Amino acid sequence: MKIAMIGTGYVGLVSGVCFSDFGHDVVCVDKDPRKIEMLEAGKVPIYEPGLDDVMARNVAAGRLSFTTDLKAAVDGAEAVFIAVGTPTRRGDGHADLTYVMAAAEEIAAALTGYAVIVTKSTVPVGTNKQVMRVIRKARPEAEFDVASNPEFLREGAAIDDFMRPDRVVVGVQTEHAKEVMAEVYRPLFLREFPIVFTDLESAEMIKYAANAFLATKITFINEIAALCERVGADVKDVAKGMGLDGRIGNKFLHAGPGYGGSCFPKDTRALARIGQDHAVPMQITEAVIKVNEEIKRRMIDRIVDLCDGSVNGKTVAVLGVTFKPNTDDMREAPSLTIIPHLVGNGAKVRVVDPQGRKEGEALLPGVKWADDAYHAAQGAHVLVILTEWNEFRALDLAKVAKKMAVPAMADLRNIYSARDAKRAGFTAYVGVGR
Questions:
Q1: CB of 124 closer than 8 Å to CB of 295
Q2: Whole-model pTM?
Q3: Of 3, 285, 371, 427, which one has the fewest beta carbons inside 10 Å?
Q4: Which of 28, 228, 263, 307 is catalytic?
Q5: Long-range interactions of 362-369: CB distance < 8 A, separation 24+
Q6: Phi, psi of 346 (to 5 degrees)
Q7: Burial code of 403-418, b = ≥16 C-beta within 10 A, e = fewer?
């Protein structure tokens, strides 16, 4: 099949590359000529393990190309995917659909024959029908269907998630659109991965409901962690005991400094707003949003306490600033709340992150960047673990402790134990929920 992918951000690029690996002919479109030039040169603008290899393989096979010419990409395409950004709209919490509707108008002008217009961006319920109206108004004679195909990719594991998904969700209105989308995902159908065909509204809602539930799970265990600290329980044991219940499962039950990233913050806010607009308040989701912000502030207090009540003039070494490991994504990362507070209160913050510096230098003014954890720890009064990158999981803690002015650790990901830290020479250690 010929597929056009509009947008080469995280979702669009990963999806386009993976569809080409299915054997389809894929053209990825972006308005940014610098990004297209980079892609044509074989350089991936985002960090995602394995993406560069899959991209190079399919470019070499002639199945994958990049362009700024949307009209040429859409010409003859059987499926046209919209994978542009839907950031939170300023002021009201809604998803901003400006880019989606602009793409729909351009697609309408470029259509030369029947195609299924597929929204892959995360959009509120009713958006796909709005896309249909935009195209129909611009081109009353056009032959097309619309479909909703939300993505469920985890940053850092996106290739495997696309190739071996828990499920694929497709919302359609016609049998013809269903047939086209079944062919798009034929390799997964043949390998018997679940493909859920439903209506447009249900597909749109599935995405928001899934992300809000996962955000709730994270926030729930973080609240339990706070209670564990007061009653003397260990949240890791509590989470293990909970997760062994098949009705609950062990995923997303890891206490930490709160969720971040490109999806959970934006999608929980959007779902809360959708509920308000339809007079069905999403009270649990609204509480999750509020508690998640409180958790980040609670982590700040933990660091300040290790510095005897004030970080003014203290050197703080921070390990990890991306919202999770194996990505360079800084969007809504806890570090963007925690580090500016430390800097604003007089701390000298030294940071190390394997992939975060590219975005972090602009987002975290006033910090110094270190080459590794040992350099970051030199002369520090507290070591803060914010992101659980693998290279931070097996540090020589004794070496780290000796380099510090005051060997104190705030392990906000619980990757070490108080026993290990104290054996290595740390005089103070705090985790989360322990």
A1: no
A2: 0.91
A3: 371
A4: 263
A5: 363/330, 363/336, 364/321, 364/335, 364/336, 364/339, 364/340, 367/318, 367/339, 367/343
A6: 95, 5
A7: bbebbbbbbbbbbbee
Token digits of residue 312:
């003014």
Whose CA is closest to 263, among 329, 168, 352, 203?
329
Res 94 pLDDT > 90: no
Q: Is the pLDDT of residue 93 over 80?
A: no
Do the bridges between strand 168-171 and strand 195-198 make them parallel or antiparallel, or are there none, so unpaired? parallel
Same domain as 390, residue 321 = yes
Report the distance separating Cα 293 and Cα 348, nearest Å: 24
- The predicted-structure confidence for 331-361, as pLDDT tens digits, reads as follows 999 999 999 999 999 999 999 999 999 999 9
Rounded to the nearest 5 percent, the helix, strand and coil shares of the chain are: 45, 15, 40
408 and 347 share one domain: yes
Report the CATH number at residue 392. Answer: 3.40.50.720
Asked whether residue 203 is assigned to any structural domain, the reply reads no
Count structural domains, the chain.
3
18 tagged catalytic: no
pLDDT value of position 305: 95
Cα 340 to chain centroid distance, Å, stands at 21
The C-alpha atoms of residue 161 and residue 322 are separated, in whole angstroms, by 20
- Do 182 and 110 fall within a single domain? yes
Tell which of 198, 231, 258 closes a domain: 198
Q: Can you tell me the distance from the alpha carbon of 389 to that of 356, in angstroms, rounded to the nearest whole number?
A: 11
pLDDT digit string, tens, across residues 202-249: 999 999 999 999 999 999 999 999 999 999 999 999 999 999 999 999
Residue 72 lies in a domain: yes
Report how far residue 37's alpha carbon sits from residue 30's, in angstroms, rounded to the nearest whole number. Answer: 10
* Residue spans of alpha helices (H) in 153-195: 158-163, 175-184, 186-190
Residues whose CB falls within 8 Å of the CB of residue 149, separated by 6 or more in sequence, listed in order: 81, 118, 119, 120, 168, 169, 170, 171, 181, 203
H-type alpha helices, 307-334: none
Please indicate, yes or no, whether residues 268 and 252 belong to a single structural domain of this protein.
yes
Calculate mean pLDDT across residues 129-146.
96
How far apart are the C-alpha atoms of 149 and 138, rounded to whole Å?
23
Q: What is the CA radius of gyration of the chain?
A: 23
